[in-house]
Specification:
four-stranded mixed β-sheet, about 35% helix, single chain
Length: about 100
Amino acid sequence: MVLVVGVGALLVWGVSKGIDELEKGAIPAGVYESARVGEAEADLRGKLPEGGSLLTDGVEKQGPALPDDAACEHFVDDEKDIVYRFCFRDGKLASKVSYTWSP
């Protein structure tokens, strides 16, 4: 009985961690579409999840070249195989790019 409860708890924990990973790296298309170049970075980051998800690991390699002078964050669409890239410079959104990817 203890073994069954232990395995069940481990399964629940694993599912919870998987959902957390998805939430850290996925956004709806509306967030990307509403972002405007020149928008304050702090305002936009308030609409974005934490980032740094295993879900987005390596997606920057499949897209257009990264700008040299900006810090970029990548997120995936919560429904489609689309990557949304937001690049910030001097506290503002300097560019945004979307592209399809192969998970």
